[in-house]
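tool=predict chain=A
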Amino acid sequence: MPLVQTESIVLRTYSLAEADRIVVLFTRGHGIVRGVAKGAKRLNSKFGGSLEPFSLVNVEYFQKEDRELVSIRSIEIERSLFDVAAEPAFLSVFSEMADLLMAFVPPQDPNETLFRMVKACVTANITSERELNALKVYFELWLLRLGGFLPDWSTCFRCGRKVEPTETARTDSDQHLLCSTCARSHSGTAVSPNVREQFLLARSVSPEEYAKRTSASDNEMAVKELAEILGKIIQNVIGGGRERRVTGF
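tool=predict ok
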Protein backbone atom coordinates (compact mmCIF):
# COMPACT_ATOMS: atom_id res chain seq x y z
CA MET A 1 0.00 0.00 0.00
CA PRO A 2 2.24 2.84 -1.28
CA LEU A 3 2.05 6.42 -0.01
CA VAL A 4 1.26 8.93 -2.78
CA GLN A 5 2.16 12.62 -2.51
CA THR A 6 0.81 15.03 -5.10
CA GLU A 7 -0.41 18.57 -5.66
CA SER A 8 -4.20 18.69 -5.97
CA ILE A 9 -7.29 20.84 -6.35
CA VAL A 10 -10.27 20.04 -4.13
CA LEU A 11 -13.36 19.65 -6.33
CA ARG A 12 -16.06 18.25 -4.05
CA THR A 13 -16.66 16.83 -0.58
CA TYR A 14 -19.51 14.57 0.57
CA SER A 15 -20.57 13.42 4.00
CA LEU A 16 -19.75 9.82 4.92
CA ALA A 17 -21.08 8.32 8.13
CA GLU A 18 -21.03 10.56 11.21
CA ALA A 19 -17.50 11.91 11.16
CA ASP A 20 -15.93 11.24 7.77
CA ARG A 21 -15.98 12.86 4.34
CA ILE A 22 -15.46 11.64 0.80
CA VAL A 23 -13.18 14.08 -1.03
CA VAL A 24 -12.93 14.39 -4.82
CA LEU A 25 -9.52 15.67 -5.86
CA PHE A 26 -8.06 16.62 -9.21
CA THR A 27 -4.42 15.70 -8.74
CA ARG A 28 -1.37 16.65 -10.76
CA GLY A 29 0.07 13.16 -10.78
CA HIS A 30 -2.96 10.87 -10.83
CA GLY A 31 -5.94 12.72 -12.32
CA ILE A 32 -9.32 12.49 -10.57
CA VAL A 33 -8.98 10.71 -7.22
CA ARG A 34 -11.72 10.00 -4.68
CA GLY A 35 -10.73 9.38 -1.10
CA VAL A 36 -11.92 9.16 2.48
CA ALA A 37 -10.86 11.78 5.02
CA LYS A 38 -11.53 10.07 8.33
CA GLY A 39 -12.72 12.35 11.12
CA ALA A 40 -12.94 15.35 8.78
CA LYS A 41 -16.31 16.45 10.24
CA ARG A 42 -15.04 16.61 13.82
CA LEU A 43 -14.33 20.04 15.30
CA ASN A 44 -10.74 19.15 16.10
CA SER A 45 -10.11 17.44 12.75
CA LYS A 46 -6.53 17.49 11.48
CA PHE A 47 -7.89 18.48 8.06
CA GLY A 48 -9.20 21.82 9.32
CA GLY A 49 -10.22 24.06 6.41
CA SER A 50 -8.13 22.20 3.85
CA LEU A 51 -11.18 20.52 2.30
CA GLU A 52 -12.85 23.72 1.12
CA PRO A 53 -13.78 23.39 -2.58
CA PHE A 54 -11.27 24.78 -5.10
CA SER A 55 -8.46 24.97 -2.56
CA LEU A 56 -5.04 24.21 -3.98
CA VAL A 57 -3.47 21.62 -1.67
CA ASN A 58 -0.69 19.08 -1.25
CA VAL A 59 -2.17 15.70 -0.36
CA GLU A 60 -0.81 12.41 0.93
CA TYR A 61 -2.86 9.25 0.59
CA PHE A 62 -2.64 5.47 0.65
CA GLN A 63 -4.27 3.31 -1.99
CA LYS A 64 -5.02 -0.40 -1.99
CA GLU A 65 -5.22 -2.13 -5.36
CA ASP A 66 -8.71 -3.49 -4.75
CA ARG A 67 -10.21 -0.24 -3.40
CA GLU A 68 -11.69 2.59 -5.46
CA LEU A 69 -11.50 5.07 -2.57
CA VAL A 70 -8.05 6.02 -1.32
CA SER A 71 -7.31 6.73 2.34
CA ILE A 72 -6.26 10.36 2.78
CA ARG A 73 -3.48 10.75 5.31
CA SER A 74 -2.96 14.51 5.25
CA ILE A 75 -3.81 17.64 3.26
CA GLU A 76 -1.77 20.82 3.43
CA ILE A 77 -3.19 24.05 2.01
CA GLU A 78 -1.06 25.70 -0.65
CA ARG A 79 -3.64 28.34 -1.55
CA SER A 80 -7.19 28.76 -0.30
CA LEU A 81 -9.90 30.21 -2.51
CA PHE A 82 -12.48 30.37 0.27
CA ASP A 83 -13.14 34.12 -0.07
CA VAL A 84 -13.51 33.96 -3.85
CA ALA A 85 -15.60 30.78 -3.87
CA ALA A 86 -17.97 32.33 -1.30
CA GLU A 87 -19.20 34.78 -3.96
CA PRO A 88 -22.32 33.26 -5.60
CA ALA A 89 -21.25 34.01 -9.19
CA PHE A 90 -17.77 32.56 -8.66
CA LEU A 91 -19.15 29.56 -6.78
CA SER A 92 -21.55 28.80 -9.63
CA VAL A 93 -18.86 28.96 -12.33
CA PHE A 94 -16.26 27.02 -10.35
CA SER A 95 -18.86 24.36 -9.49
CA GLU A 96 -19.68 23.96 -13.20
CA MET A 97 -15.96 23.61 -13.92
CA ALA A 98 -15.70 20.87 -11.28
CA ASP A 99 -18.73 19.06 -12.73
CA LEU A 100 -17.22 19.15 -16.23
CA LEU A 101 -13.88 17.83 -15.00
CA MET A 102 -15.57 14.90 -13.27
CA ALA A 103 -17.61 14.21 -16.42
CA PHE A 104 -14.71 14.44 -18.88
CA VAL A 105 -11.72 13.04 -16.98
CA PRO A 106 -11.59 9.28 -16.28
CA PRO A 107 -10.68 8.30 -12.69
CA GLN A 108 -6.95 8.21 -12.01
CA ASP A 109 -5.98 9.22 -15.54
CA PRO A 110 -3.12 11.72 -15.13
CA ASN A 111 -2.95 14.75 -17.43
CA GLU A 112 -0.24 17.23 -16.47
CA THR A 113 -1.24 19.80 -19.11
CA LEU A 114 -4.89 19.74 -18.06
CA PHE A 115 -3.94 20.12 -14.40
CA ARG A 116 -1.81 23.18 -15.16
CA MET A 117 -4.66 24.72 -17.17
CA VAL A 118 -7.18 24.17 -14.37
CA LYS A 119 -4.76 25.51 -11.77
CA ALA A 120 -4.18 28.64 -13.85
CA CYS A 121 -7.95 29.15 -14.13
CA VAL A 122 -8.80 28.79 -10.44
CA THR A 123 -5.89 31.01 -9.36
CA ALA A 124 -6.43 33.72 -11.98
CA ASN A 125 -7.03 37.23 -10.67
CA ILE A 126 -10.65 37.69 -11.76
CA THR A 127 -12.39 40.87 -10.61
CA SER A 128 -15.68 41.11 -12.50
CA GLU A 129 -18.52 38.96 -13.78
CA ARG A 130 -17.52 39.66 -17.38
CA GLU A 131 -14.03 38.35 -16.67
CA LEU A 132 -15.56 35.35 -14.91
CA ASN A 133 -17.72 34.52 -17.95
CA ALA A 134 -14.68 34.78 -20.20
CA LEU A 135 -12.71 32.53 -17.85
CA LYS A 136 -15.42 29.87 -18.11
CA VAL A 137 -15.25 30.01 -21.91
CA TYR A 138 -11.47 29.62 -21.75
CA PHE A 139 -11.76 26.62 -19.45
CA GLU A 140 -14.37 24.88 -21.62
CA LEU A 141 -12.44 25.49 -24.82
CA TRP A 142 -9.25 24.03 -23.39
CA LEU A 143 -11.06 21.12 -21.77
CA LEU A 144 -12.45 20.23 -25.19
CA ARG A 145 -9.14 20.82 -26.92
CA LEU A 146 -7.09 18.67 -24.56
CA GLY A 147 -9.74 15.95 -24.76
CA GLY A 148 -9.58 15.92 -28.56
CA PHE A 149 -13.13 17.22 -29.05
CA LEU A 150 -12.49 20.77 -30.29
CA PRO A 151 -13.11 21.35 -34.02
CA ASP A 152 -10.46 23.00 -36.19
CA TRP A 153 -11.76 26.42 -37.12
CA SER A 154 -8.85 27.48 -39.33
CA THR A 155 -10.22 25.79 -42.48
CA CYS A 156 -13.63 24.85 -43.86
CA PHE A 157 -14.60 21.36 -42.72
CA ARG A 158 -16.26 20.60 -46.09
CA CYS A 159 -13.93 22.02 -48.78
CA GLY A 160 -10.72 22.52 -46.78
CA ARG A 161 -10.31 26.15 -47.82
CA LYS A 162 -8.76 28.53 -45.30
CA VAL A 163 -11.46 30.75 -43.79
CA GLU A 164 -10.47 34.38 -44.23
CA PRO A 165 -10.24 36.60 -41.10
CA THR A 166 -13.05 38.90 -42.28
CA GLU A 167 -15.31 36.12 -43.55
CA THR A 168 -18.57 35.24 -41.82
CA ALA A 169 -18.85 31.46 -41.62
CA ARG A 170 -21.35 29.02 -40.14
CA THR A 171 -21.22 25.80 -38.20
CA ASP A 172 -22.70 22.43 -39.07
CA SER A 173 -24.59 20.26 -36.56
CA ASP A 174 -21.32 19.13 -34.95
CA GLN A 175 -20.01 22.73 -34.74
CA HIS A 176 -17.40 22.24 -37.46
CA LEU A 177 -16.72 25.45 -39.36
CA LEU A 178 -18.03 25.94 -42.91
CA CYS A 179 -16.84 28.74 -45.15
CA SER A 180 -19.28 31.28 -46.58
CA THR A 181 -19.58 29.29 -49.82
CA CYS A 182 -20.23 25.88 -48.26
CA ALA A 183 -22.49 27.35 -45.58
CA ARG A 184 -25.09 28.57 -48.08
CA SER A 185 -26.99 25.30 -47.90
CA HIS A 186 -26.76 25.00 -44.10
CA SER A 187 -28.84 26.55 -41.35
CA GLY A 188 -26.25 26.25 -38.59
CA THR A 189 -25.04 28.99 -36.29
CA ALA A 190 -23.42 32.05 -37.86
CA VAL A 191 -19.83 32.57 -36.70
CA SER A 192 -18.63 36.14 -37.07
CA PRO A 193 -14.96 37.10 -37.43
CA ASN A 194 -15.06 38.44 -33.86
CA VAL A 195 -16.23 35.08 -32.47
CA ARG A 196 -13.44 33.27 -34.33
CA GLU A 197 -10.98 35.83 -33.01
CA GLN A 198 -12.03 34.97 -29.43
CA PHE A 199 -11.73 31.27 -30.29
CA LEU A 200 -8.16 31.67 -31.55
CA LEU A 201 -7.12 34.07 -28.79
CA ALA A 202 -8.03 31.56 -26.07
CA ARG A 203 -5.62 29.09 -27.66
CA SER A 204 -2.64 31.46 -27.40
CA VAL A 205 -2.79 33.27 -24.02
CA SER A 206 -3.18 32.49 -20.32
CA PRO A 207 -6.67 32.34 -18.77
CA GLU A 208 -6.11 35.55 -16.82
CA GLU A 209 -4.92 37.44 -19.90
CA TYR A 210 -7.83 36.11 -21.91
CA ALA A 211 -10.32 37.21 -19.25
CA LYS A 212 -8.82 40.70 -19.09
CA ARG A 213 -8.60 41.16 -22.87
CA THR A 214 -12.10 39.93 -23.65
CA SER A 215 -14.01 41.61 -20.82
CA ALA A 216 -14.59 44.85 -22.76
CA SER A 217 -18.23 45.47 -23.64
CA ASP A 218 -17.63 45.17 -27.41
CA ASN A 219 -16.34 41.62 -26.90
CA GLU A 220 -19.08 40.53 -24.51
CA MET A 221 -21.48 39.35 -27.23
CA ALA A 222 -18.75 37.42 -29.06
CA VAL A 223 -17.79 35.63 -25.83
CA LYS A 224 -21.45 34.80 -25.21
CA GLU A 225 -21.87 33.39 -28.72
CA LEU A 226 -18.70 31.32 -28.36
CA ALA A 227 -19.96 30.02 -25.01
CA GLU A 228 -23.18 28.82 -26.68
CA ILE A 229 -21.24 26.95 -29.37
CA LEU A 230 -18.91 25.32 -26.83
CA GLY A 231 -21.96 24.36 -24.78
CA LYS A 232 -23.40 22.48 -27.78
CA ILE A 233 -20.14 20.58 -28.26
CA ILE A 234 -20.07 19.66 -24.57
CA GLN A 235 -23.64 18.38 -24.73
CA ASN A 236 -22.78 16.30 -27.80
CA VAL A 237 -19.80 14.78 -26.02
CA ILE A 238 -21.51 14.07 -22.70
CA GLY A 239 -24.93 13.15 -24.02
CA GLY A 240 -24.12 11.53 -27.34
CA GLY A 241 -21.06 9.47 -26.49
CA ARG A 242 -19.52 10.53 -29.80
CA GLU A 243 -16.15 9.29 -30.96
CA ARG A 244 -13.28 11.68 -30.35
CA ARG A 245 -11.98 13.70 -33.22
CA VAL A 246 -8.43 14.58 -32.22
CA THR A 247 -7.45 17.85 -33.86
CA GLY A 248 -3.90 18.31 -32.59
CA PHE A 249 -2.51 21.40 -30.87
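The two ends are 38 Å apart (CA to CA). The chain has two domains: 3-81, 124-240.
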